[in-house]
Amino acid sequence: MGAHNQQVEVKADRVTLRRIRRQLRQESAFVHLLRVVTSVSNESTTIEEPLQTALDAVCALTGWPIGHALLKTDEKEELSSTGLWHLDGAERFETFRKVSEALTFGGGVGLPGRVLAGGAPAWIPDVTNEPNFPRNRLVHDLGLRAAFAFPILVGREVAGVLEFFHTERVDPDEAILMVMNQVGVQLGRVIERRRAEQTLSSLAQGIVAQKGEDFFQSLVGHLAKSVKADYALAGEVKEGRDAVRTLAVFARGEIVPNFEYALAGTPCEAVADQTFCSYPQGVQEKFPEDRMLADMQVESYVGTPLFDSAGRVMGLLVALWCRPPANLRVAESMVQIFAVRAAAELERKRVEETAQKLAEVPRANPHPVLEFSGEGALRFSNTAAHVLARSMGKDDPIHILPADTAGIVRKCLETGKNGIVVDRLADERTIIWSFIPIVKNDSVFAHAFELTLFLDLHEEMRRMGVLSRQHRGRTRSNDPGWIAMPRRSKERVH
């Protein structure tokens, strides 16, 4: 009796040992599968290579003869074939391949649709008994029985599905499904990387030649599409830093008119204060005073400041969702990537606007302003310069310039210093010319100031009592220089 029990125990131990060895071999095979898929996913520059590798590796591991990859169609919640297969016996399954490639699967439709809707692996022991299987008749004729599929996940989003078929009935294997879920995550990273590359390429091609309003409209449209946002906007913080003026707004598929809104009580208030902000959900509850969030039914928010080259906040870029985004991490990264280009364009826009304003300053100056080329040729003269010329009996400012103006211009550019010429005219009038070099533009600006008129005005104001003794004394004590009344023209470069 004792010997018999020992034999039973030995046999049991052998069975347990075989089971353990089988489990170890299976686990080793699973690890090898994940290692292969991960390696190809990290090194590949295409989506097709890691998908094909996964199909072949899974079929080799499981012994299943058919593997097929489907990806989600852009902007549609449905799956279509990639044309990538693993087929043991291509001729036998040719009809099945053609039919499958012609179909699309919406959420809940067929095995791929179940995975798309549920976001988790699914297993059908016998598809011939499955009512929700559009290819039921075809698989019956070909002798296909079992099927399983798992999602390709980008965050919580199902970006694709891999499906597999066997010619025999096979009960669900939870260990296989768990490993397949990890394979799907690895493949999702490939798709995530590819999407980012395509988005950046599309961004560069779509807006590279655009400026101003067209640029920002294109940018918010590309941003909304890339992160599947319901709204996206770019805005400029107003001078008082208490409000935002939008530069472009994308709302539910279209560009809408610009508007202004106050920052107080909004998530944008922190963004305008140099802070990147992300609210995965419940943004309305966090900012109950922001009625616009409620009106737009916004649930999630990502916003980042737009900095100029000196690190000052010029504006902001925001993406908003009515439902939480499938992959918040990707959305946050994309908003910040787009913000770099948006900030560069906003700063360029500001510089251009400032340059346009500054260009009007010489024209509007009540005193004569002239511009000379590096050779001393007169390029520009404002209205006041023409008035001065006419007062001196000349029809053009070129006839009232100091002697050797070309030499003065060259000296200013060579030294990089301003030049001053005091010109005493025959009629006792005195003109002070100030020459200012702009070396990088090889040009010199000249400002003419009629000292005689200033002194006459000063004397008239003194006689009228406009200038008190106290005021005159303060003016003299703060005077940084001196005024000379030379008998002839004098030149000074300083």
List the helices and strands and how they pair.
Layout: H1 2-43, H2 48-62, E1 66-72, E2 78-87, H3 94-102, E3 104-106, H4 110-118, E4 122-124, H5 136-142, E5 147-154, E6 157-165, H6 174-207, H7 212-227, E7 231-237, E8 243-251, E9 254-256, E10 260-262, H8 268-272, E11 277-279, H9 283-286, H10 291-295, E12 300-307, E13 313-321, H11 328-364, E14 369-373, E15 378-381, H12 383-391, H13 405-415, E16 419-424, E17 430-438, E18 443-450, H14 451-463, H15 469-478, E19 490-493
Helix pairs in contact: 1-2, 1-6, 2-6, 6-7, 7-11
Report what the structure shows.
By secondary structure, the chain is α+β, with helices and mostly antiparallel strands. The chain folds into three domains: 19-197, Beta-Lactamase (2-Layer Sandwich), CATH 3.30.450.40; 211-360, Beta-Lactamase; 365-493, 2-Layer Sandwich (Beta-Lactamase). The chain is built from 15 helices and 19 strands. It has helices spanning 2-43, 48-62, 94-102, 110-118, 136-142, 174-207, 212-227, 268-272, 283-286, 291-295, 328-364, 383-391, 405-415, 451-463, 469-478, and strands spanning 66-72, 78-87, 104-106, 122-124, 147-154, 157-165, 231-237, 243-251, 254-256, 260-262, 277-279, 300-307, 313-321, 369-373, 378-381, 419-424, 430-438, 443-450, 490-493. Strands 7, 8, 9, 10, 11, 12 and 13 form a seven-stranded antiparallel sheet that branches. Helix 6 (174-207) runs antiparallel to helix 7 (212-227) and helix 7 (212-227) packs antiparallel against helix 11. It is elongated and about 120 Å long. The termini are far apart.
